[in-house]
Each structure stands twice: as C-alpha cells, then as structure tokens.
Amino acid sequence: MKRTNRRFRQIAVVLLLVVFNLGLLSLINPTVGSSAVKAAGAGSSGVTIPAPRPEVLVVQIYFKNQAERDRLATEWGADEVDTSKGFITVWTDQATYNRMLAKGLKVAINEKTTKQANNPNLFGQASPDSFFGGYHTVEEMQSFLDQYVAAYPSLVEKINVGSSWCKVNAGSCTQPDANNGYTLWALHITNRSVPGPKPVFWYDAGIHSREIATPEVAMHFISYLLDSYNTNADAHWLVDYHDIWVMPMFNPDGHHIVESGGSSPYYQRKNANYTNGCNNWPPSVSSQFGIDLNRNYPFQWGAHGGSSSNTCDQTYRGPNPNEVEVQAVTSKIRSLIPDQNGPGTTENTVNAAPITATGVVMGMHSYAQLNLYAWGGVGNAAPNGTDLANIGSHMSATNANPPGNGYTSEQSINLYATDGTSVDWAYGELGAVAFTTELSDDGGGFFPAFSFTNGTIWPQNQGMLLYLAKLARTPYLTNRGPDSNNVNVSPTSVAQGTPASLSASLNYAWTSNSYAQNVGAAEYYVDTPPWAGGIAVPMNGSFTSQTVSASASVPTGALSAGRHIIFVRGRGVNSYSGFQSWGTVSAVFLNVTTSGPTNTPTNTPTNTPTNTPTNTPLPGATNTPTNTPTNTPTPGGCGGNLFQNPGFESGNLSSWTIDGTSPSPTASTAQHHSGSFSALVGSLTSGGDSSLYQTITVPASGGTLSYWYWPSTLDTITYDWQDAYVQNTSGTTLATIMHIDSNAQAWTNVSFNMSAYAGQTVRIKFLAHDDGYAGDPTYMYLDDVSLASSCSTPGPTNTPTKTATPTNTPVPPTPTNTPGTCSNPFQNPGFESGNLSSWTVDGTNPSPTASTTQHHSGSYSALVGSTSPAGDSSLYQTITIPTGASTLSFWYWPSTLDTIQYDWQDAYVQNTSGTTLATIMHVDSNAQAWTNVSFNMSAYAGQTVRIKFLAHDDGYAGDPTYMYVDDVSLACH
Predict the structure, then answer these.
(1) Are 917 and 558 in contact (CB under 8 A)?
(2) What tens digit of pLDDT does each residue of 586-600 get?
(3) Of 470, 402, 461, which Cα lies nearest the Cα of 436?
(4) What is the DSSP letter of 456?
(5) Quick check: pTM over 0.70?
(6) How far apart are CA 645 and CA 675, in angstroms?
(7) Neighbours of 475 (CB within 10 A)
C-alpha cells in the first residue's frame, strides 16, 4: 500500500551528507542538549540534522559456564544474539570496551558487524531501506493499519490498547523533538459475522525499538491474512474462526527515537521514560535513557539477576513493573485469554495448564535466530514444558507443515538468564502457550537491508506464524496430532452432482517431533469445521505409518452452486487424557457450478383443486422454479390473513419492524409476485445484515405460514445467506424456517406449519446476510406473506384458484388426493427400550443417553448434551420418507443459561453422507418444558435421509446446554 514520506527528514539527510563530505561535522559527545546541529546554509528554514551516533563496537565476551554467561549478560547488557558458541554479544562503545579489557575479560570485536554499525550513511541517499522509502515510521505504520481497516471493514478493526509514555506524560518528551507520544494500536482480525467464542492468537512486535525488522514482519502477516482471505483457504478459515490480534509497534516512542537518526538510525532499545536518572542524548548502544519493556513484566520482575538496576543500561527493568506500555498490553491480553494454570506467582508454584487450555502469545525480537519459551529465569522445565518444546520444534522444522523458520528452538534461559519478560508472564500468569521469536539478520545486526527483511526474514517466518495461529484453540492438545498438508481437490470446479477427488497428506515425521506416531485416521468437513458442529466424513488411506496419503470422493449433489471450503485433519493412534490426537486443520476451496435446471415442471394447465397443499419445495430441495408461477394458493381458513401490509402494496413497510439496517429493507417495484410492490431485503450492492419482522398471534388452531421470495447471490452459504425465522417477542429464535444461499432469481413459495406455536405471540422475521465483499451481493425480494387460522370444520385449506393458467410451480412426485396413513418409520422413537438402539450416536462429547429424568410419554427420553458443560452431543436415525406429503413431529425439553451465539439446540434433515439439507430447529432455549415441533417433509418424498438432533455447548462452566428428545414420528397425509 502507498505510503506518504516525511519530506523534512529527506532534506535533513541530504544536508547531513553535504556537511559530512565537506569534513565540517565531527562526533558530538553524548551529552544533554546536543540533540541536533543546524544545517549549513539552512538560514531561517529551521531544518535540523540528526546528531551522529557515538561510535559502536560489537564485542564478543567469552564465558566458561552458564553462571558466568548470565553474570556477564546482566553486567554488560548482552544483546539478543545466540550464545551457543561460548560468547555473549554486546553492542557498546570504546570506553566500555576498555573497561572490559581492564577487567581481564576475554573479548573480541566482530569487525564485520562493527563496520556496518558505524556506517554514517547506513541506508544511503535515496535508499529503498530508509524510513521514508522502505522501513515504516510510526506514523506510516498507523496509516498502514488505517488502510487495511478501510479495505476490509468486516474483517478487521483497529483497537486502542493504551498510550505510550510520552502520550501519558504529554509535553515531557523533547528528545529528539517535541513529541507528545502515540496511541498503542492493535489490529483485531476476525470475520465478525461468524459467531464465537473464538480462540486468541496475540502477536506483538517492536517492543525493542531498534529491532526494526520485527514490525515489518508483523505487517506482512496482516497483509497475508487479509489480502489472501478470498484466495487462500487457510487464511480464510483462520480469519473466520479465530480472534487474531497483531500489534506491529509496542514501543512507538522508542521507534520514533530510532528513526530520528535518519539514514543512520539510533540504537534506542528502551522506551522514552527519562525520569529515572539517565538522560544521555543521543542514545548510545551502551548508555541510553528509558526502561527495557521486556524486563518490566510483572511475573518474577527482577527475580533472577536477568535485568539491570542501572538506569542507563540497556536492560534496565525500571523502578517498578508495569510501565505504561506493559500495563496496557497485559491488561488487554488478560481480557482475551483467561488464567488457566492457577494462582502460582513463581516458577515453582505455577501449575500445569490443562491439555485443553486455549490461547497463544507471540512476542517478536531480533536477531538471534531462536524460538524461545519459558522459563527465562530458572533452568527447570515449565510444567507444560514437553508441549512447549514440541511446539518450538515445529516452529523451527522446515519439513513441518506449515514449514518452520529453521531457527534453533530452546528454553529461554539457554540464551542467558532474564526476568520480567513477556514470555514468562504470558505462560506463568495465564498458562497460555507463549514464545519469543528472534529473527535472523544479514550480518548487519539490528538494521538488516529492507530487501532482506522482505525477501528472507518474512518468508522464513510466515509458516511459523500460521502454525501458531492454527494451534490457538487448544495448542497443548493439537500439537500432538499430525500436520495436514498438500490438501488438494480435483478438479477445483465441478458441476453439481459431479464428485470431486480430495487428497491430502498427514505427517508426523517432522524433525524432533516428541509425539511422532502412526497416523490413525483422517477426515474432511464441508463448509463447517469440526469445532463449529461440522459433520466428519472419513477419508481413505493406509494408516500404518507416520506419513499417510489420504483420499476421498466428495459428493456435490447436495451442495449449492458457489464456492465451498473443505477442511481436512488427521489424528494419531494415541489418545491423551481421554482426548484423541487430532492435529491442525488445512483447507482448500471447491467451486460448484450449477448443473442446469432440475425437476422443471411442464406448462400443463391444472384446474382441479385437491385436498392437499401444493408441494412447493422447502429449503434444501432442488426443484427449480420458473419465473411465471400461477395458481397461487389463497390464504385458507376462516379468520383471514393475520399479517398487515402482507404484499407491501402500501408502497412502504408500514406494519413491519426493521431491525437490520445494513442496508434497511425497502418497498420495491423491481420485482413483485403479485400487485406492484414487494419488500427488498438486502441490497443490490454489498451490505451487511438487512432484516424486518412482523409480530402476530398464532390462532389456537395453528395454521400455515406462506410467503414468496425471489433470491439472488453469487456467494456460498458459508458467507452469505437468506433466512426466515419464528422468534419470540424478545427476538430469540424458536425455529429456522429457511436458511439458504440461493441464486434462483425466480419466485419460490415456502409453507411452514405453525401448529407448534398455536396461541403464542411470535415474530416472523426475514433476513438477508451479506459479508460485505464487492461483486457478490446477497438479497431477496419478499411478497405475499400470509397466515390464516384453520377452519373449525374439516375441509381443504390453501385451495388453489380455479384458473386455466399453466402451473409453473415446481412439483415433486404428486401426492395422492386422499389423506392416508403410514406406519411410523422411526425405530425406538420414544426410547422406551431404555437405550438408544436404532439411533446412531455421532457427537460424543458427551454421548447422548436414554434418560428417565424427563419424558413426554412413557418412561424414557433421549438426553442430548449434559447437565455439566461439554461439547457437541448428537444422534440421528436414517429413514426413507414415504411418497407424498408427510410431517415430521418431535417433542423436546430444552435447558441453557447461555445465548445462541455460544450454545444451541438443533435439529436437521441431512442426506446419508451427513450434509445438512434443512435446519428444522436452531434455538437456544431455557424453556424447561416440553415443546412440539412439526416440519413438512414433503420436499424429501421418496428420499432416504437422516433426522439428526444436536446440543452444542461451548464448555464454559456454569451454563450447560442440553435437551431431552421424545416421541419422534413421521405421519403421512
């Protein structure tokens, strides 16, 4: 994205070069007040040039053992450079180097890095590396975030986490210029239309401001996720189902100081708090004001000699923990990730986080080429040390998937002792998986060429960051499963009804995998992943080794036209703490194209009314309507239509309540089923949630709701949809009448039996959801909404008018004209066997059981879910729907204390492969009373289907969600 330059700094750099080449500029002592030198010939322009950096020596100090290493690292301010070769690296000055020699230390100067560090024109005139050509200034980083918020408003938001020290203390910061500080911004990346709760991946960079490559990598990660959202299936599902927080600049005051050096940046590491006794200017690598924010975290602050009490030292920990920047970030992370390992406050009192603990925290540094994990202050392993080490090995392994960065992975203390660090705090206080990654360099230390950062460092770490994001839901458990990689579907685009070939590789055999074992199984999911209640479909493979190729044929007959996403994962043969070892998910897109009209009716006049309603297809049926429906059923019954302004012929939406305004529904003449108007729900351009409802009282005799809709979309139901609901007067959904993603662009009728709500006052709501992406708007026109009470005496309802107009309404196999009866095809429908015989249990967290606690009739019902928090509990029975009209009926007794955003009770019609054809019920009810649901099954006449019941619980204590199910039946008409 385009960035604006800071012109005054360009001028300053040019003038600096002129003065330097004339030999008029000499080194200025790092004393207070020598912040800048007036440019020669600048006159009254006021242009200033940066004071040059004091000379830098990059010194290697050799040690004999770990204790000496840690003592020297603290005493001399070791930098984050690998210590495995027997020396620490210190960036310092000549006077400090002389003191090292006087103490008899074994030292050596790294000549290559020293030469680069002292380059007075490090990035060169008009260099692509400079802060106004390559690396971003603080202001440019903030503009970068703003541009992505503007480009992807439904996927990302910029969140104010807090304020920098200079902003909290406005007017106090005068070096290198009058600076009133910055807001600390984080980018929250998630698809807000996909409900949560979602696991958290927190990623910050720039805490040490001179490590200028780290914010650039963070911004690359932002670009990758958002710019690839519509083209990369893994980026897509990560954004949909995770809360990803990226904070490119933790320490903006410090970065402002670094960049003020122009083409030869200052080596400021700390923040800008100068009030603790050190006020040297300009900053040298060994003496600078500020607090080291990564020695200032509240867990074991100052406990292990891993930080300095000297105010000018690079690792000065501050007089107290929780400097303003640290306090802002820790407060935010605490609000996102719960404390999961108990009340311990030291390394020896912290408990292990449970295997199901959630959340990942990453802090990025440079330039030691390491992946570090707790602990940094003591040598004993953390309670979850085996998993932390294994995750670190994956982050390093270039033969893993996603590939690692090739760095060394180790416990943090193996670099040298530290205390008050982010990695120890995030694990020690919250139990979250926490890592510090030290980036590589090109031999120049903290300031690698911008081309190296873009071309080498970012590609090295892209896969590592993706892996941590994928793990975030249950990292301690998921890292024990195999990678899923090389997920492909062939062809990538198929016509409806044509199967697609799915292939993938499941791999445990990456370097240093502590959980390597044989792959035990693989499975795929279409559109809905496992944690969101998706239906698992097993894949084929020879599961006898650590690396297995798996395959499957994906049926597409029940998939709507448009793009779908297929999720693949594998598991090992071992289980841990009662949990199977499912690994990370990888995904691929599959495009399904329309295969042409099906069940197209002929234009044969139909003048004879029958005693059964027309079998207009319900959601999930494949009958394609034409554009000239006639013989429209008139509202039957004795009481007339209960809806006001049902055809919108007032030219407005009077009597309807608008509750979804992105955009607001409107009365429209563009399409109409009858009369001159209909309601346009949604927009012909991209929008958000557009909805309206009317409140009615259902007659005591029940009745049939009928409406016509004309839908349009170019997207899939994963992202956009057209819905209709029955809700109570508070807006809680009692039943989903329709949940589709249709591009039929033709009038279609839906009828829904309202008997279950007889005598109740309810809302009938219509909604079009659009994910906001240009080019694929989703909307529908709505017309002729009706509900009438049934007559008190037997007689036909919804009788078609007797006109000779051809009937173009799609007609499945014609039902008989006389009501009939059929035996209930369900086996063990009331669970009176005392078990679940004839039912298939496919959701086992926990398994449904036969129960005597509640029962609608007899002595038993099925308990779906649990009275304690669990996960997905479900069961189904496969039946063949008789030819003709039929109605499914069941009774349920629901209980929950949560909302439908997190927990729900559902019923579905599915095909025999488990693909959902219709949602019968999607509620979050705490009625704790027996309620009947009836559902018209005529659209599935002659088909073999599953009827499935599911209770989803998000696992949080105190609000279990479950239901009892009884007396499941199917009756013919």
Answers:
(1) yes
(2) 999 999 998 644 333
(3) 461
(4) I
(5) no
(6) 12
(7) 28
